[in-house]
């Protein structure tokens, strides 16, 4: 039996079965298509074509029911994304800032001596020159001079990156 003949012969059964399982998470047209696919699969599975009608009538509802459950699961798990805000959700701005800060600190560690690194890190943390002077037991003018040297060392590194 040709596929077109098989579909034409069992079309009422497929549509009735699809109608029975409509509303369980799948649309009627989707279930009809699944029923047609199941019909073709069952035709291949049936060893004795004399019993094809009984075989299809008994197995087709199971295929359509399974398709309805599968489609219901797909609809339930589907999240519709607003593509304008997806990038904002994928990359957290605070995470970007944290990674940038870590990258800057790594560059500072490579380019500066340990004492200079500590001074630069504290300045980045918001310490004033007078606070740094008190912490390091030096004058504010000495802190200013050291920060000027640090800036001179780092200026080529950060200007090349921009």
Automatic annotation (TrEMBL):
Keywords: DNA-binding, Sigma factor, Transcription, Transcription regulation
A Pfam entry, by short name: Sigma70_r2
Domain RNA polymerase sigma-70 region: start-end pairs: 6-55
One GO BP: DNA-templated transcription initiation
Molecular-function annotations in GO: DNA binding; sigma factor activity
PANTHER family, alphabetized: SIGMA FACTOR F FLAGELLAR
Protein known as: RNA polymerase sigma-70 region 2 domain-containing protein
Lineage: unclassified sequences, metagenomes, ecological metagenomes
């Amino acid at each position: 039996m040709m596929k077109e003949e098989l579909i034409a012969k069992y079309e009422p059964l497929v549509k009735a079965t699809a109608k029975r399982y409509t509303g369980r998470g799948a649309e009627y047209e989707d279930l009809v298509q699944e029923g047609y696919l199941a019909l073709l699969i069952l035709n291949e599975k049936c060893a004795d074509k004399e019993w094809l009608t009984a075989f299809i009538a008994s197995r087709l509802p199971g295929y359509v029911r399974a398709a309805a459950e599968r489609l219901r699961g797909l609809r339930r798990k589907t999240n519709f994304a607003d593509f304008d805000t997806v990038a904002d959700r994928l990359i957290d701005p605070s995470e970007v800032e944290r990674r940038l800060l870590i990258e800057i600190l790594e560059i500072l560690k490579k380019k500066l001596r340990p004492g200079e690194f500590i001074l630069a890190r504290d300045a980045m943390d918001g310490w004033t020159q007078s606070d740094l002077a008190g912490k390091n037991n030096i004058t504010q003018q000495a802190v200013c001079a050291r920060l000027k040297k640090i800036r001179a060392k780092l200026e080529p590194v950060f200007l090349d990156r921009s």
